[in-house]
Amino acid sequence: MDIELLKSELLYRTSRSGGKGGQNVNKVETKVEARFNVAASAALSEEEKALVLEKLANQVSGEGILSAVNQTERSQLSNKFLAEEKLVKLVEKALKKPKKRKPNRIPTAVKEARLEAKRRLSEKKAVRKGKGGNDE
Fold first, then answer.
1. Can you tell me the distance from the alpha carbon of 59 to that of 128, in angstroms, rounded to the nearest whole number?
2. Residue 48 — very low, low, confident or very high, per pLDDT cuts 50/70/90?
3. Which helix or strand (DSSP H or E) is residue 13 part of?
4. pTM for the whole structure
């Protein structure tokens, strides 16, 4: 994946931020939505596109557009940068392959301790039933 090429393919849409803030919020379009068309991207290979569409299926629209929104900052430029970073991190996380699990061996002492505990519990219950444990 080429991050710089991916960033150049992003489209931005601005709107007014919600919530409190008085005149700044009411007049200035500081909310930024970064949009990325996964299917038409040249930054991703075909298998990377398939992986992104599979892993982020609930965040990709019907047209195959992945978006990230930011409206925390007062300036449009800051929000644009943060939305861009958020979207790139989403794609990177979707492309990251999980480490393969290495099964480990259970130590002999642990196995023996478990069996010993089972044996003790069995004897205790046998005594309760009146059989007298393993003596018979």
1. 60
2. confident
3. strand 11-15
4. 0.66
Residue 107 belongs to a domain? no
Q: Phi then psi for 6, rounded to 5 degrees?
A: -60, -45
Q: Which H/E stretch holds residue 65?
A: strand 65-70
How many separate domains does the chain show? Answer: 1
Contact by Cβ (8 Å): 32, 69: yes
For residue 136, pLDDT over 60 is answered with no
Domain presence at residue 75: yes
Collect all residues with Cβ–Cβ distance below 8 Å to 99 and sequence separation of at least 6. none
Secondary structure (3-state) at 34: strand
CA 102 to chain centre: 22
| Rounded average pLDDT over 102-120 | 95
Sheet with strand 31-37: strands edge to edge: 11-15, 31-37, 65-70
CATH number for the domain harbouring residue 80: 3.30.160.20
